[in-house]
Amino acid sequence: METVLPNGLTLITAETPSQFVHVSIVFAVGSLDDGANPGISHFLEHLLYDGAAVDGVHPKLRHLHGKGIEVNAETGKTSTEYWIDGYVRDLGAIIDALFSIASVFECSAFHVDRERPVILQELDDRDGPDQDLLLWERRTFFPHVPALHYPTGGTRESVEWITVGALADFHKRFYQPANAAVIVTGGVSHDA
Asked: Is 25 helix (H, G, I), strand (E, B) or coil?
């Protein structure tokens, strides 16, 4: 089922007979929206997913980890998604946690500088002949779409120059309820 809430947020549910639930929030923003800051949508995803974590666990998710949740996030060309899998009994806490990590930008220059090497390493790990061929094809067949000419994560040069201010502005511009959908699947009804 699908419902558009008064704030513009789209809610999509698929009820299945299960004690588990998958909850994701998908924003209609990806690397095609990066503009002058290639990789900014991916960088923001990293910051929101990790938060102020010092040990790899987002502080707003710590209380759920003991309950067996799975958490992840992904940036594509046209969307960015954050999701949590867990037990239906924890649905309220899962939704609260998911919204708190995705809807509030609480990062500082310290967090940006701490995450930058992680993203640069990710770019290095993805480099290679397959990536080169893909980017060559995109430049050849889509010469007028510059956002397709670099990896989703941006380039080393662009990632080096992304600032906390640019990330905060990007978040404010694109992370709005009317630009998002919440998808809930599992043992929960649409009305719940």
From this structure: strand
The chain-wide mean pLDDT, for the chain, equals 89
Instruction: Give pLDDT tens digits for 98-112.
Output: 998 888 898 889 989
Residue 20 is predicted with a pLDDT of 95
Burial degree of 17 (CB within 10 A; 0-12, 13-18, 19+): exposed
The DSSP line for 74-97 is: EE-SS-EEEEEEEEGGGHHHHHHH
Q: Convert 18-55 to b/e letters by CB count within 10 Å (16 or more is b).
A: eebbbbbbbbebbbbbbeebbbbbbbbbbbbbbbeeee
pTM score, whole prediction: 0.88
